[in-house]
Amino acid sequence: MDQPAPTAGPADPPAAAPLLRQRLTIPVLAFGGILMAVMQTVVVPLLPDLPRLTHSSAGTVSWTVTATLLAGAVLTPVLGRAGDMYGKRRVLTGALALMTVGSVMCALSSDIAVLIAARALQGAAASVVPLSISILRDELPAERRGSAVALMSSTVGIGAALGLPLAALVVQYYDWHTMFWLTSLLGALGVAAVWWAVRESPVREPGRFDVLGALGLAVGLTCLLLGVSQGGQWGWGSPRILGLFGAAILVMALWWWQQLRTERPLVDLHLVSRPRVGLSHVAALLTGFAFYANSLVTAQLVQAPKATGYGLGLSIVATGLCLLPSGIIMLVFSPVSARISAARGPRVTLALGAAVIACGYVVRIADSRDLWMIVLGATVVATGTTLAYSALPTLILRAVPARQTASANGVNVLMRTIGQATSSAAVAAVLTHHTSLVGGTPIATLHGYQLAFGMACAVALAASAAALSIPGDRAPDDTLRAGGRTQGARDDALEGA
User: Which of 75, 224, 249, 406 has the most neighbouring CB atoms within 10 Å?
Assistant: First the structure.
């Protein structure tokens, strides 16, 4: 007797599990972005005590920050290109794994050499955001993509705002290694979540990896960023700094020549030379400079001694809490940015965001003595940063083919990193030249802080002008998306064969 064929119900596990993973894709990728930003900031509260804890000099300890910066700048475009070629989820999981291994190394050792090497490993996590944005483009329908990309871009600020007070609390009440054990646990959770919830994108750009181009970029960027980050300590006119800048110019010129003549280059310079892509990278560099000055100066300003006449003498924990509103506002405004981009285009959103950053610095110049005004000014800058950072990847997505989104976004993040490094050096130079003795210790003057704010304000206005000069951004995104799906289908067919 024939038995009726069983039918699968809507709640059957085989159908429910893939649906659950699909719904968790955005939260999991956002968690990875926040975790990356937390990893970059957790070492900040430790910096004053690390020389004593590791029996090393302050100059040596500063490399725990410099190593992460250099490694992130070098690896972001390299891993972006690798993601386009070999699979974005695979490379993203590897970057998070390297970050977690670095955290475990920090938890197990007090040797400064090990800590610096571990922090360099953690620099690989800088590629998390561009890789995640590329995955979102490949996996999400057009109506969901804008808000998801905006949220992903905002995770950098959200994680930084959360990481500083969290790390300060752990350092104040527990052994400092506990902080790295905690981040190791979170990192392992992030790796497992990405591996389980994120589907591997079929969109690929096959070819041979440009090893020579990757090495050339690594050497050139290392010379450039090392010179920028260490110029204040070694002396801007010292032979070492001049030699680094000279080497950077020579190596990058040779690298540019090599990239133009390579069949499958690491960075498609023909694509970069298009105004819509190149001007987006220029705007990213300027926005990174303008945004980073806020983070650098706010923490120093509120911790300055009350004897300066403007300082509030806050602890590092209280300082971190002052930055929390900025993280909250970035989370709240990310969907607003997506709506503005959908209605007016990301070019307008980027220009508006940079202008809002400039307005925030006007507030900072007007009053940097009262805590509520300091928090207000920093929050306005964070609002503008949310708008700008959310618009930048959307501009890139509309301007490049789907198969090159990870590498193109990697270059865009690299430009932000260079802007941040330059901002750090410029702010340090301004504050160093405007100091007064307070209790026998040189402390930056309020005028010096105001000059730093004015400099960042001018750069933000330049970023807004650069954004407005980008050609109309209503690109044939559907055409690019269709092309990407066609390429993905070809890749699937090749793999199936």
Answer: 406
Asked if residue 352 has pLDDT above 90, the reply is yes
Nearest of 67, 72, 63 to residue 126 by alpha carbon: 72
Q: Is residue 340 exposed (0-12), middle (13-18) or buried (19+ Cβ within 10 Å)?
A: buried
Determine contact, residues 409/393, Cβ cutoff 8 Å. yes
- Could you give the count of Cα atoms lying within 13 Å of 307 in the half-sphere of its Cβ? 9
Give the Cβ contact number of residue 346 at 10 Å: 34
Q: Strand 435-438 and strand 441-444: pairing?
A: antiparallel
**Chain-centre distance for alpha carbon 276:** 21
Give DSSP secondary structure letters for 160-219: HHHHHHHHHHHHHHS-HHHHHHHHHHHHHHHHHHHHHHPPPP-----S---HHHHHHHHH
The confidence score (pLDDT) of residue 21 equals 67
Backbone dihedral angles phi then psi of residue 474, each to the nearest 5 degrees: -80, 75
Q: What HEC string does 436-489 produce?
A: EEECCEEEECHHHHHHHHHHHHHHHHHHHHHHHCCCCCCCCHHHHHHHHHHHHH
Residue 274 half-sphere exposure, CB side, CA atoms within 13 Å?
A: 15
Residue with tokens 């905690």: 182
- Counted residue by residue, the chain has a size of 497
CA atoms of 146 and 337, how far apart (whole Å): 9
Distance, in Å, from the CA atom of 344 to the CA atom of 471, rounded to the nearest integer, reads 14
For 167-205, write each residue's pLDDT tens digit: 888 877 888 899 899 999 999 999 999 999 998 877 777
Residue 350 has a pLDDT of 94
Question: What integer best gives the mean pLDDT of the chain?
Answer: 84
Q: Does position 478 have pLDDT exceeding 80, yes or no?
A: no
What is the signed CA dihedral for 325, 327, 331, 333, rounded to 10 degrees? 60
The sign of the dihedral angle between the CA atoms of 191, 194, 200, 201 is negative
Instruction: Give the dihedral of Cα atoms 299, 129, 80, 466; nearest 10 deg.
Output: -70
**20-59 residue pLDDT tens:** 666 788 899 999 999 998 888 888 778 778 888 888 887 7
